[in-house]
Amino acid sequence: MSSGAGPPPRPPQVSPDGKWVWNGTQWLPVARRDAVFPAWTVIEVEQAEPAPEVPKQELPPIPVIGDEPEPEPAPMAYVQDDSAAPAWERPQTGLNKYLYIAAGVVALVMAAIVLNSLGPIHLPWMPSDTVAPKVSPTPPITARSDYASADRLLNGFLGPAFTSLNQTMPVLNETCNGLLTFSCRDRMRDTDAQVKNVISLLDKQVAIACIAAPVAKLKLHVADMEAGLKLALQAYKDNKISELTQGLARYRGAAQAIGADRLAASNAQKLACSPQLTGP
Fold first, then answer.
1. Where in the sequence is the domain holding 222, given as residue range(s)?
2. Strand, coil or helix: what is 269?
């Protein structure tokens, strides 16, 4: 091999537009390339062929907001507001009708209460001879005599009371059969209320001499009936059938004696009570 000169150095890299040259670290203007690479001051840089021009496509004009006519709005259905219409043209609802009816009923009730507080109300269709409720008045003394006083006690006071008592006694006798049943207890309570009523009447009346003896026995036997019923009712609290049996036996024995006492008092009225008027 011959020891000749090496290959010439490669020319510097120039930008395609021929205005910039790469010095290995940065791009420098071509006007200063003599300072960078003095050996290449005479080098001519071939100008790159310009790229063919691409025909420009005309784009449609961009519409400007506000130039186009706004689309007409779709016709809206008109709904009439019932509240704007007169009251007589608004559709009637069933609720309003019932409210008016309820208000009228309340007004009538309030008016009736006010009128009733002022006095009894007499309606046009009511007969004028309306009979007032029958109230059992105190039996009057028809004559000022012992006979009349005894009759007033035995028939005027005690008669209705014993009638009410006699209506409860048969039911009690049929219901109470020696067992602690609720039906027996309820019937004994009904009878006991009537017995207490008779005792209250006997305690309030003034003793009449001509019938004092039979009335005293009558009062004693009525009290014995009440004591028997009390013992029989106590059996439910004590849960003892023996007390129920003993109480009912005492009650029934006294009830049988009452019939004889009332008959004795009636006979005493007829035989011992004088019909002679007394007092002023």
1. 146-272
2. helix
